[in-house]
Amino acid sequence: MYENYLAELKKDMQLTDEFAEFYTPFERKDIILILSTLHSYLINLFKCMNGRLPTKDYTAHFWADPSRELIDTIDKIETLQRRLKNSEYSFQIEEYNQSIINKCNEFLSSSGGSTIPEYMEKIELYYAVPIFIKTNTVSIEHPNNKSVSNLIQIGEGSYALTYKYHDNFYDRDFVIKRAKKDLSEKELKRFKQEFEIMKGLKSPYIVEVYSYKDNNSYIMEYMDYTLDKFLKLNNDKISSGVRKSIILQLLKACKYLHEKGYLHRDLSPSNVLIKVYDDVLVVKIADFGLAKNPENKLTTVNTEFKGYFNDPNLKLEGFNNYSISHEIYALTMLIYFITTGRTNTSKITDRKLNNFVSKGLGDKSNRYKSVDELCEAYRNL
User: Fold this and answer.
1) Residue 356 CA neighbour count, 13 Å, CB half
2) 137-221 and 225-379: same fold?
3) Could you give the CA distance from residue 90 to residue 84 in angstroms, rounded to a whole number?
4) DSSP labels for 323-371?
5) What are the residue ranges spanned by the domains of the chain?
6) pLDDT, tens digit (0-9, with 9 covering 90-100), for 152-205
7) Which end of the chain is more exposed for a tag (fewer CB within 10 A), N or C?
8) pTM
9) Does domain 137-221 correspond to CATH entry 3.80.10.10?
10) If we measure between CA atoms, which residue out of 323, 230, 214 comes closest to residue 276?
11) What is the CATH topology of the domain spanning 225-379?
């Protein structure tokens, strides 16, 4: 239990609330005070070490007492991190400070002082930003401003978790998509490729992404609903005009993708997102982890496909053989879902709708050959 260790730390340190404002997301007063104190200890000891820097092409001596104090402080930090790891108070050390701690661990000595290595630069002291970041928060940097915001988990996929947070600088919500820690090298490469694909696409119908972080996460725009959630909440009050607008925007998005040489390969109501403005709904496609283009070498014969909206024939044909006809199948399913709010296509009473759906889901050789052809058939319904 971490409780005993917290009590031990409170007795062992001269507590200070100098940096307590940085640690309010932890909510618990004793943890806030302990982290504030450890923050103070670190920067005071780093400041002391800076008095011996820069070393350039020679080494320098760091005195025995501060060496032992820094060893003890780092030990307290790392022990506290381990004790809180599986609790709601788990935290990470800010990346730059973690790198300094790692370097210090290489040369600090508990007796006789420590030899500071050659070329070690002066350490940046964090007086205005936190050193310890709560696991379910995000550090937000802007010019002359850095803050911490709570993360709220809003989704989970095969490769990543998605979180929502509010940026006070822009007064807007954003999303962080963070790769799971147990991904294989190939899966992580696919996750990074998803960001690169989305970053390279410039369309009002594709979710916008902003920056990729060193902890294998990236920031993207926040959308209000998945298509699935939007229809579940509003299906009985959505006009035919709104449904048509959603469908046409979806088709424009896919036409743009296909013109760029991509097949999405994972079209479903959870990957079609909706932003609600006062006067219009905007539809955007997300989740490009399975997107395919001619240069994509990450798909194997055994790649798994999921979801009711995929062509079941793929189980026999193999996902690596995914083609435009399979994308047409998924789009037809989506159009039917948006039009009716249902997924069961076995009992369609409207003759024109039934003919439209049957062609889009039927034998591959007879399906619509492109998004344009599918769109034209939809307009003629």
Assistant:
1) 23
2) no
3) 5
4) -HHHHHHHHHHHHHHHHHS----S----HHHHHHHHHHHS-GGGS-SSH
5) 2-133, 137-221, 225-379
6) 888 888 889 899 998 888 899 999 999 988 889 999 999 999 999 999 999 999
7) N
8) 0.69
9) no
10) 230
11) Transferase(Phosphotransferase); domain 1 (1.10.510)
